[in-house]
Amino acid sequence: MRRLAGMKVNRITHFSDVVIEGLATDGGLYVPKRGFPNMEAREWLRLVDMSYPERALVLLEKCIHPSDVSALDLRTMIFKAYGSNFSSEAVAPVKHLDRNQYVQELFHGPTASFKDLALQLMPQLFAHCLPQMCNYLVLVATSGDTGSAVLDGFGGLGAGADRTGVLVFFPEEGVSETQKLQMTGHEDGNARAVGVRSDFDFCQRSVKRMFGESGLTGHLAVEYGTVLSTANSINWARLLPQVVYHSSAYLDLCRDGVITFGEPVDVCIPSGNFGNAMSAVYAKQMGVPIRKVICASNHNRVLADFFATGEYDLRGRPLTPSRSPAIDILKSSNLERFVHHVSDGDGRLVGELFTRLDARQHFRVAEPLLRRMQQEVLAGWCSEGDCLAAVQRVHAQTGYLMDPHTAVAKVVADRLQDGSCPVVLCATAHYGKFAPAVFEALRIQDIPEDPVEQLRRRSPADVSTDDGLWSSRRH
Q1: Nearest to 145 by CA among 409, 343, 326
Q2: Structural domains for the chain
Q3: Which is it for strands 423-427 and 101-105: parallel, antiparallel or unpaired?
């Protein structure tokens, strides 16, 4: 592994170090030193008829050295992560939506969002890699879904739980009521959630500042024997498991006869912090025939503007709350990894650009680099009205009910995808987590204020409910 920022690295940083450290000491993010292992077609074809945990084991074994996590231990963790805690045996099933569009449902985990696909595994890796003589405080900034997934994932730890504390910061007014209750209702062990009277960017910026405050880190180390870490997607062990479900979606389409291996697909992802999109880029690097990664934003469209112009400009740009709050983000952490990827590993350039962004709230990439970015990623955005209209239209035409984030992906895919190959829409959350917006889209009146009553309000007369979600494990 190596850092993204321009600092020269004089030591080999192992996977186990990266899991625990989270953020590199120079302020950059970790990426694989030699990129991802590229698999040949015959290797992928062997995975087509495998289950999700079996696919995950094969892929992650290629990315995690056995000296860090043995094959046996990794297998045990993966089969625990993707077992009865998911309401679908397929874990991340792909369903046909309409014409050449497919939906990968990433919300069948314990907290009903795509974050579970990483955060049922990452805490186990973290506990496995914990040094013996140290405690760790895991700091997390969330725009909604990460928080509850982190609390659930770390709450399920056995060994290592007594030496690991978790502190989640979320924007008090920037998450849905269901998301808030999932976080604040969690009282197990050493994990707590804290509402902040600001937006997600403030929470994320504050967490990164804590890592750089020597007074704080020194006090924690001396007085409590405690070191800081993070479970956001800036932590490599959070991002890595997400490569699996993008790979699995392609394999499912092969298994179901939609495509033969080697034929291209596009992937459309509602994105704010760019971690989900970046994991699709890495799946492509590993050999999955993804043609374009389509990045879908809501009206906080900084990513769409960046991919259109090469200019990342936060000057005077307010964060505006939306009905898709998980992507209400202006400063996308994982964009560092993408610029590193398209610049052929130019850590100095990455360091200069993002230092400029911190200092001046603005940077622009050169035209040749912009063209390379656009070869990999398409980007667009969706208004609030178009988002709600998509929820209503798709439900009326197909009976399928999307959450607002998936609807953002649907709108952008309709605009940008040319129809020449299948496109997979990432359904990143269950619609029940955003019931008021869904009720509004479906023009259902008299919405109850209580989130539990909102869930009970759903009936076959109102919406199609065949997902079997919201088991007793959910908060």
Answers
A1: 326
A2: 1-108+236-475 (3.40.50.1100)
A3: parallel
Please state whether the predicted TM-score (pTM) of the whole model is above 0.70.
Answer: yes
Q: What's the alpha-carbon Rg for the chain, to the nearest Å?
A: 21
Alpha carbon 364 to its chain centroid, in Å, reads 25
- Cα–Cα distance, 408 to 60 (Å, whole number): 30
Say how many C-beta atoms besides its own lie within 10 A of residue 11's C-beta. Answer: 6
List helix spans (H) across 361-402.
367-376, 384-398
Kindly give the residue spans of alpha helices, DSSP state H, lying in 256-365.
275-286, 302-309, 335-342, 347-360
| 207 in Cβ contact with 139 (< 8 Å) | yes
Q: What is the dihedral angle through the alpha carbons of 339, 344, 345, 348, rounded to the nearest 10 degrees?
A: -70
Are the C-beta atoms of 328 and 300 separated by less than 8 Å?
yes
Burial of 162 (0-12, 13-18, 19+ CB in 10 A): exposed
Measure CA 11 to chain center: 29
Strands 101-105 and 94-98: antiparallel
pLDDT tens for the chain, 475 residues: list them: 333 333 223 334 789 989 988 888 777 889 988 889 999 999 999 999 999 999 999 999 999 999 999 999 999 999 999 999 999 999 999 999 999 999 999 999 999 999 999 999 999 998 898 887 788 899 988 877 888 888 888 887 765 567 888 999 999 988 888 888 888 887 777 888 999 999 888 998 898 888 888 889 888 888 888 888 888 788 899 999 999 999 999 999 999 999 999 999 999 999 999 999 999 999 999 999 999 999 999 999 999 999 999 999 999 999 999 999 999 999 999 999 999 999 999 999 999 999 999 999 999 999 999 999 999 999 999 999 999 999 999 999 999 999 999 999 999 999 999 999 999 999 999 999 998 899 999 998 877 777 667 766 654 444 443 443 333 233 3
- Whole-angstrom CA distances from 111 to 68, 310, 466, 470 are 29, 36, 18, 9
Write the single-letter amino acid at 17.
D
Q: CB–CB of 369/342 below 8 Å?
A: yes
Q: List, in order, residues 6 or more apart from 110 with CB less than 8 Å away.
A: 85, 86, 116, 120, 149, 152, 473, 474
